[in-house]
Amino acid sequence: MAAIGNVGYNYLGASGLKVSNICLGTMTFGTCKGSFPVFECNTQLDEKQSHEVLDKYVQLGGNFVDTANVYSKGKSEEIIGSWLQKQERDRIIIATKCRAQMDASDQNSCGLSRRHIVQSVEESMFRLKTNYIDLFQAHAWDNGTPIEETMRTFDDLVRCGKIRYYGFSNVCGWQLQKIVEFAKYNRINQPISLQQQYSLLCRQSEWEEFMVCKNEGLGVLSWGALKSGFLSGKFKRGEKPSKTQSRVGFYNADENVAKQVGLAVVWSDYNENDAYWNLIDKMGKIAAAHGKSIPQVAIRWLLQQDVVASVIIGATSIKQLEDNMGASAGWELSKEEMSALDAASPRMSYYPYDFLWRLNGPDRYNQFNRSIKL
Ligand SMILES: NC(=O)c1ccc[n+]([C@@H]2O[C@H](COP(=O)([O-])OP(=O)(O)OC[C@H]3O[C@@H](n4cnc5c(N)ncnc54)[C@H](OP(=O)(O)O)[C@@H]3O)[C@@H](O)[C@H]2O)c1
């Protein structure tokens, strides 16, 4: 990893693009009622606050901003667009996505069809006030569209210069391998990244998707590093967080919201799970030994996973931003601390992965077998 000041930079997968190892997530920019509950949360930022966060992020050395058409129904992109106009456009790497329904009255305003992808790219460029997008991502797999149609569209968009690179998000192992094989055997531009939920409390992608990334040269952009803020250390065992002061409190105050959001995004019965609190205690001890914070330990643990190119952080204040950026470079968790965190992080083992991993120990490591990278 190369570092400039206190920020590390990595290549994004097997591409020549360099991104800061902390990417600024902008799901917290803008508010919107009636789409997804997260955009109604009290801690969402208005335009002025969002611009302050963006300014500070760039000042601290970041160059990589992640958004999506669906974030506050286009408002996040608009807020970035009004800020981007005042920047040197070429110094910022902009990533956005499409897949979610944008207009309930229009059957074609969702998915990964050629029609919707091309329209989304045009609309995102308009909101972002730019004539190209650096990284365009499929927000999730779409069962309704043949993957061939999606892949050809991404390739065409790269060739005509509207997008520089493309990637996927929220897919499972067989889907990702199919994506990669299609690009490889049709000799079209390859995806360079996978944006996936990944944290000390969400490690399922280690079994399949990250193996594909390692073997095929995709960089992981992890989201949910703090599990919506739960892994920040600011909540106390047995105390219900206030509904208005944090996203975790907002999700958990109302059963309907928690149900709608689902466990994919937030841990909803957090105060009953000892393993989670024991993990936070362990993170607290490691943080104290380094004079760092719990969020910094959570992010640093991710940065030390070889498959991760950049950790997408969320921040609802400058203080949180500075805290999270402090994980980027200049210090490391030791081997022993990484192992202690691994041990404290609750992991399910599933057949056949547990079985295969036991059979394929160090004695089956073959340095000449280039097709398998563990
Ligand atoms: N591809 C996808 O499907 C997908 C899904 C989700 C997110 N994302 C991307 O990933 C980004 C980050 O995701 P996320 O927001 O779920 O990340 P996260 O790191 O799990 O949670 C971020 C939230 O935690 C709290 N927080 C952040 N830093 C803190 C600190 N230092 N101390 C205390 N609290 C802190 C803030 O909420 P409060 O202030 O409200 O507590 C913040 O909004 C998003 O903005 C988006 O760009 C992608």
TrEMBL record:
SUPFAM superfamilies: NAD(P)-linked oxidoreductase
Stored Pfam families: Aldo_ket_red
Alphabetically ordered keywords of this record: Oxidoreductase
GO molecular-function terms, A-Z: oxidoreductase activity
NADP-dependent oxidoreductase domain span: 21-344
GO cellular component, one term: cytosol
Similarity field: Belongs to the aldo/keto reductase family. Aldo/keto reductase 2 subfamily.
Descriptive protein name: NADP-dependent oxidoreductase domain-containing protein
Organism encoding this protein: Sinanodonta woodiana (Chinese pond mussel)
